[in-house]
Amino acid sequence: MSSEATGDLVLVLRRLGGTVTGGVARLGYMARFLGAILWYTPMALRRLHLTVREIYFSGVLSLVIILMSGLFVGMVLSLQGYEVLRRYSAQEQLGIVVALSLVKELGPVIGGLLFASRAGSAITAEIGLMKATEQLSAMEMMAVDPIARVVAPRFWAGVISMPLLAALFSAFGIFGGYLIGVRVIGIDAGAFWGQMQAGVNFWPDITNGIIKSIVFGAAVSLIAVIEGYDAKPTAEGVSSATTRTVVVSSLAILALDFVLTVFMFRGVGL
Amino acid sequence: MNRAAIDLWVGVFVAIGLGAILFLALKVGNLLTLDRTPSYRVEANFDNIGGLKLRSPVKAAGVVVGRVESIRLDPKTYAAVVTMRLDRDYEFSKDTIASINTSGLLGEVYVGLDAGGDTAMLKDGDHIGKTQSAVVIEKLISQFLFDKAAQGGAGK
Predict the structure, then answer these.
(1) Distance CA A213, CA A201 (A)
(2) Of A2, A52, A55, B71, which is most buried with the most CB atoms under 10 A?
């Protein structure tokens, strides 16, 4: 082996090592950041109106996009599901198909993706701009911890809003499925709801969906506040941090969804 | 936007969010059914349970009266032991026959209970003696073919 090839190999290995240690360090940083948020939570909750305000910005203002998407996703599911079920003349099972896929997967996942792009990006941009305009430093000068005052309320607002938004997404999706399945296609309403109730269990189906949405809410909010807090204090830095929030939290949602689903399958005993 | 308006909006948001969870629980998931009502357990042995699953319904005359709670294999007799949780409101006589049926050709598999004439009723932990196993379509077809072949042989 020539010395040049050995040099290349060392370079590749060094780069690989750098990537791995960088990733681990980043993970550790995120865990410590989460620890700091939890540590300052009692202090943040003493000023409850800060969290309520953030629920308004990330929850209430996301309502329209969540409800509209839920309705349309439910309607499409109903059409496509009917198309497949009709081949086995099992159209009456449409209620189960629509409800289970919304409650277990689509509600939390699509809700989470929309939440990341609607609310997560806004949180990152806001905190990033606060940093760029040195508001965070000013707070520290006044002995106000920015994590207690700015970060923790936004984090908890996301954790609280996300399950509610996912439940609304699923509920509106099921309503959309009902509109198409029963009102337009003409499946018997009693069969639609009856099959749905026989096939969907509160425990574990709906609770699994709620657990997923809480985890996604925490993941998106954590990523959003960290990216904002770490953004370079320039216009460019804030814009790239906002982009990173959407990309990283979308990937995190999809990866976490897979991991959670694997664990939940095992829990059911399949 | 002032604080009172934000509080109001957040209140509305949380209320409809919880309402959606309630809707999912009650209307979609049917939470307030057999899980909450008082119930009792009975067991039954089957030679073959076919496609019976956990939480499959137990029906009497087509009415859901309980759910399958556990399914295990008896290691000595190699019979499937199915534990069912039945609604307290419904009582069945000791000589009830349990059978495994399918609703429709591809429909769900359920345990059917046919009540007998005994005056003593099944109690918690009782064992249903008379059972009828699932019909396995493959076996049925092969039996039919063998019968046909036997008939053909005898006819010659």
Answers:
(1) 17
(2) A55
Check: CB of residue B100 under 8 Å from CB of residue B134: yes
Per-residue pLDDT at A3:
76
ipTM, 2 dp: 0.85
Q: How confident is the model at residue A191 (pLDDT cuts 50, 70, 90)?
A: confident
Q: In what order do the strands lie in the sheet with B109-114?
A: B126-128, B39-46, B80-87, B63-73, B57-60, B109-114, B97-102, B130-132
Query: How far, in Å, CA of A205 to CA of A105, rounded?
Result: 10
Closest CA to B47 of B93, B81, B19, B14: B81
Kindly state whether B30 is in contact with chain A, defined as any CB-CB distance less than 8 angstroms.
Answer: yes
Which of A113, A83, A92, A95 has the alpha carbon at shortest distance from A174?
A: A95
B63: helix, strand or coil: strand
Q: Is B49 helix (H, G, I), strand (E, B) or coil?
A: coil
Mutate to test the interface with A, among B28, B35, B56, B105 (most CBs of A within 10 A): B28
User: What are the extents of the domains in chain A?
Assistant: 48-268
CB contact under 8 A, A59 and B13: yes
**Four-residue CA torsion sign, A111, A105, B24, A176:** positive
d(CA A9, CA A173): 53
Q: Which one is predicted more confidently, A214 or B62? A: A214
**Which residues on adjacent β-strands are paired with residue B128?**
B44
Residue A191 burial by CB count (10 A; 0-12/13-18/19+): exposed, middle or buried? middle
A124: closest CA among A248, A253, A256? A248
Domain ranges of chain B: 1-32, 39-141
- The predicted-structure confidence for A20-49, as pLDDT tens digits, reads as follows 999 999 999 999 999 999 999 998 888 889
A99 interaction partners in chain B (CB closer than 8 Å): 28
